[in-house]
Request: fold
Amino acid sequence: MTPSVRRVGWVESPLQLINAIEAAAGADEDTLILLRRGVAQLADTAAWLEPHLPATVRFDHATAATDPRFAGASRRLVGDPFSGQVRAVLASRAVGDLVVVDDGSAALHLAAVLAGTHGFSRMGQRERLHQRALGRVSGRRLRDAAREGRVTLMTAYADHPAMPAVPGARIVPNRYAWLRGLAAAAPATLPPTVVLGSALAVDGYIDDDAYARWVLAHGAGAAYLPHRRETPAWLERVRAGGLDVIDSGLPAEIVLGADAGVRTVTSLPSSTGATLARVLRDHATLTVTQIPDEWWTGRADAPFRATLAALTLTDPAPTEEA
Reply:
């Protein structure tokens, strides 16, 4: 590690990457962000963002979070503390000074874990024995570090009424000031109405047919921005229903935030609701549809449903930086 690198980040998704850059830009500290190798959309997003990076930020690739540049760093940044990659490091190394840059349901859940009201596990999933074992160690170390003032959570839900108090931890609002300030050409041309794809159906939390009816009800002329885990067969179903599927390979925050022609964006509850509320142009409206009870499958347990419902308690509107 070169002496100029003050913090080392590990990210596994495009949104984690955006949030990591926001954290580095906001703190104005030298940061090396390691990108998990083999994640196509992450690599595409990094390539699009690289010409616009703050001077203090640089990228590199790594196969695993056990890369010595990250695992051996005393000042780290992570996008998903519940990742198996991150658990392996936190369970075997000192937490040190840690910044977590997740948003929405994951941030609310992590805050509850740090506050001691939830166990350390990924929300809505039944974890295997070895995952639970790593989680117990990681959770204990994270809670100890939070109480000692060594954990910062940067999230668009910092001021949300569902965000619990976390003794000792620093909770910082993510205003997406860096992304909003980019002077970059839009990567795609969108119509005025856009439907945002959700992973809830493909992950088995809501009924496929109910989700399809909701999407197709928006009708011809609307655009559909797919979630990265949605299948080609599903996207063909959307096209057959008259919607224009636009898959730029970039996250919705970039595609929608850069397009001046968008007027209405509709989505289901997700962390994207918080991010888009901050990056959309002022003339665009975001509408979040609550999920009817009959849509849920048995996989969606009560805590998972409650956390998603909490995401729309308050629509976090853009706020100027203090």
In short: DSSP finds twelve helices and twelve strands in the chain. Confidence is low (pLDDT under 50) at residues 314-322. The CA atoms of residues 120 and 136 lie 6 Å apart.
